[in-house]
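Fold description:
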Amino acid sequence: MLEVDGASVVARELKRPLLELRQLALGFDGKGKGDEEIRTEMVGVADRAMHQVDDLMKIQHLGNGDYKLEPVAVRAVCDDVLQEVAKLFGDKTCQMKVRYSNRQRLVMANKELLGSVVYNFLLDATHYASIDTKAELKVREVKNNVVVEVRDFGPALPIKIWREMKDSLVKQPNDMAMRPGSSVVGLFIASKFSKYMNAKVEAVRHQDGTSFLIKLPTLRQMSIWEFR
């Protein structure tokens, strides 16, 4: 269970999309020229909120054997998530550089959980994307691991969160006033799912933004561990 402080952060973050929906609804009368755009935005806000709630519910079932680890094609997962995020943000998703350079295509993971980790990273990055500052998604190999990295050009990540991600575990959601577009709950979820998959999450603070990474063991690396 989340501690009281973490629970209050979750409550505030989940309240935010409800306030957005309320504000959008106030501007929707069914007669205006921009109603279709408002309707699309309302659906997007609701979808993001429901996705986050679903992920929080999954955390409670991680120990039940519902999420088996198996060979997963990383690029296919990233492609699926890019399409999902594109439905939410439209043109903003086009303002993202995508580069795949990994030779090892398969990792030991859970497709659904890995998809949620990448989704949460991309959701953060897309908030800060523009024509001049495109977000970046990279998949590469580093020492028998496949690394999925999402780079944004938003405000710097708070030191406390950076240190927790450096230790591969965000202990509980914390406020990130410095990054108003970021989801503290999303990073908490990504941390939990990564730990379950024997993967590592990390964050790199740049002068002009932040990179979020998940390092996943390849099938070759997993076989080495099994025979030790």
In short: The helical segments are 4-26, 35-59, 74-89, 91-94, 111-127, 159-166, 184-196, 219-226. The CA atoms of residues 61 and 217 lie 23 Å apart. Confidence is low (pLDDT under 50) at residues 1-8, 223-228. The two ends are 35 Å apart (CA to CA).
